[in-house]
Amino acid sequence: MSSLSRRIRSGIHALLTVGVAALTAAGTLVLALALTPTPPAGAVNNNPSGNPTSPAVSYENDCIGTTSTGAIQDAPLVTSTVIDTTTGTNNVLPQGATFGVAGTVTQTLAGAVIAGANELANGVFGAPPSSFNISATETFGPTDNNSTGSYTYTTPSFAAQANPGGVVTGVTFSSGSTTLSGDFSGIPADAAVYGAGIPLTAVSTAAGTSTSITISAATTAASTGETIGWAPFSGLTFTDSSFATPATAFTTAAATTVAKGTAGIGLTSVSKWTFYLTTSAGTLPGANFGGGGNGAGASGTNTCIETGYVNSTTPGPALYSQPGPMLPPGLTTPLVATATTGSGATLDSVPTDFQPGAYANLGEPAPVAKSETVSMGTGQSTTITLPTVPGNSAYPVASCALVAKSISNTGGGSVNLTVAISNSPTVCQATLTDSDTAPETYTFQFTATNDYGTPETSAPGTITVSVGTPPVAQPISETVNPGLLVLSCSAPGTSGYPTLGCGTINMPSVTLNGLAQTKFGAANPIFVSDNRGNPAVGWSLTASMIPSSLKVNSNKACATVAAFCDSTVGSHASNPNGQIAAKYLSIKLTGWNAYSGTLNAAPSLTGTGGNFGTTVSLGSAAAGESGGTFVMHATYSLYVPASVYAGTYIGTVEYLVS
Q1: What is the pLDDT averaged over residues 252-281?
Q2: Phi/psi class of residue 411: alpha, beta or left (left: φ > 0; alpha: ψ in -120 to 50)?
Q3: By 3-state DSSP, what share of the chain in percent is helix, strand and coil, each rounded to 5?
Q4: Which of 140, 100, 385 shows the shortest CA–CA distance to 249?
Q5: What pLDDT is stored for residue 316 in this prediction?
Q6: In angstroms, how far apart are the furthest CA atoms of the chain?
Q7: C-alpha to C-alpha distance for 444 and 582, rounded to whole angstroms
Q8: CA geometry: angle at 233 spanning 230 and 239, to 5°?
């Protein structure tokens, strides 16, 4: 490659001429997100060994809530998910492909929360709520480094559901007791109960009677007439059957470390959840948790943090004011890993790794088995290469196979053609043998399979075989010798080609008027001819300003100035006011086009051009698509400061292809 053929210069002259009521709900909140457990080919349910919430993967989010009176309440939130659909592509490419996930979401308001709301509402309104509803704002995203993106899911408006619990008044108990005295008729075993002096996690151990009920944890204080709220432990479940992210919500990583594998998607944070209750005063927000982002925060802030346990001795980060995750180990899916350092408000930076709710299979487009017609002589044999196209050049076709029972005689006669396909030493070689004595036309089908981790097989291609008079083959050879990578101001085939010095561009004159001014001028067409014939290399075109030669700018004070320099003021040109800096000259591409006889597409304009404060990128052609001649068209713009000297300013732009 000749360096002389890769650089050209363009001279540019610029001439300057002188002249509501909120309730808190204490207790354990369990918010369950469960999706249909049967996945299609594009998504794989993640159900790790030992998962206690099989088939769902469950996530714990501990949240701080505040009331209108400033009271602070902590509660855990559990979201369970099995995503069952991957949308956007049938096979998700391992690099740069977009995809989404979808399924059915169920969110459950736990009995413990309903029990707390019943007790509190009864104290305010004289009766428990008649019904409940719920909403949550959650973020789904990658659980590994194999994709990027996120989707914020805000639950839709559900239909309110009747209150499954109630209250019991006049309840008495002593401190340290597990027996509550009162009329608990009709309250089932495992019901959540709530009231002053009763632990947050207490549930009934047996069905209540007209005189008492037994709970699972001892009371912390005595009562002579307490009102107790209760609800079935299972709570209320709300369903959204239309959960779906956009088909472009996630993008497989451009430099994924798992070229053949999966991309995990799951719940990555919960920012806010609210439950609503209908009372005699209307529908009110019963409690708001979160709202301040995902992190530990400080006392009094509305926030949620995603946490849990790796195992019984390895907890994830704890919510501010809590000694650890609020749910005991074993209630949610174990974490993959968690950091063991950090505390208080610094916990935002503590990494915790979660199981994905589902995997998107990273696949490849299947290869294509093409159809064609071949001719052969009656009673003879011939070997052909079956026509295939790989779905992705990174995973070529590895084998071809004959579709069983696909050989047929188009005329309806007997089949006297055999087809044997071999993939070694050459892939997709088919030997056709005819045993008849008369002309016939046959067809057969074949498939192609790539070498991806989980190989993909094409749809069948059809080969039509015309058997008759043997064809005559006439080989023809043409030798194409490589040439050079050439850069020129003139077109190939013109006189003087290649032209390494472009004609001078005279920018419109400027009259100094106390203001900066900008002038525009068309650039010379620049021709790039890649004659190397090498499929393994491409090229790129760049440009920069260099000092003008003395033949172009005779002012010796400008000899080392890689910018516009005043050719008419002698040594004064060394003053900054005698120069127009390179950064004030910009080039804007107006088009690339393939020159006559070039079949490859012209370079893209995306992201090219700019000012000459640095080297400017003007376009490129990829390996295998760089051959032929391409023409660049552009315009220059020159910003002229108001403070420069009058005179003729000369600058030189050098183009370089490599």
Answers
A1: 73
A2: alpha
A3: 5, 45, 50
A4: 100
A5: 84
A6: 112
A7: 67
A8: 115
Q: How far apart are CA 244 and CA 378, in angstroms?
A: 60
Separation between Cα atoms, residue 331 and residue 323, nearest integer Å: 17
| CA 228/CA 507 separation, integer angstroms | 88
Q: Give first-to-last CA distance, the chain, whole Å.
A: 10
- The b/e string for 144-161 (b: 16+ C-beta within 10 A; e otherwise) is bebbebebebebeebebe
DSSP secondary structure letter of residue 625: S
Separate counts of helices (H) and strands (E) for the chain: 1, 48
pLDDT tens string 481-516? 999 999 999 999 999 899 988 889 999 999 999 999
Would you call 345 helix, strand, or coil by DSSP?
A: helix
Find the angle CA(253)-CA(257)-CA(259) to the nearest 5 degrees.
Answer: 80
Contact 531, 525 (CB under 8 A): no
Which is it for strands 98-109 and 72-81: parallel, antiparallel or unpaired? unpaired
Of 64-68, 88-92, 395-399, give the lowest mean pLDDT range.
88-92
Q: Nearest 5°: CA angle at 600, between 599 and 602?
A: 120
Bridge partners, residue 153, by sequence: 138
For tokens 């033949």, name the residue: 551
Q: Which helix (H) or strand (E) holds 117?
A: helix 111-125
Question: Could you read off the pLDDT of 91-105 as tens digits, one per residue?
Answer: 566 677 788 887 777
Residue 4, Cβ neighbours under 10 Å: how many? Answer: 12
Closest CA to 217 of 234, 233, 193: 193
Provide the β-strand partners of residue 441: 466
Contact 13, 80 (CB under 8 A): no
Gyration radius (Cα) of the chain, Å: 38
DSSP classification of residue 52: T
Residue 645 and residue 18: Cα distance in Å, rounded?
A: 9
Provide, rounded to the nearest whole percent, the portion of the chain with pLDDT above 70.
79
**Backbone CA torsion sign across 203, 206, 207, 208:** negative
Q: Which ranges of 254-398 does DSSP label H, i.e. alpha helix? A: none
- The CA distance from 550 to 560, in Å, is 10
Which residues, in sequence order, are CB contacts of 313 under 8 Å at separation 6+?
none
Tell me if 118 sits within 8 A of 241, measured CB to CB: no
Distance CA 565, CA 579 (A): 5
Q: Name the amino acid, one letter, at 241.
A: S
Alpha-carbon span 240 to 35, nearest angstrom: 10
pTM: 0.52
With CA atoms as reference, report the closest residue to 45 among 96, 106, 103, 100: 103
What does the alpha-carbon distance between residue 203 and residue 547 come to, in Å, rounded to a whole number?
86
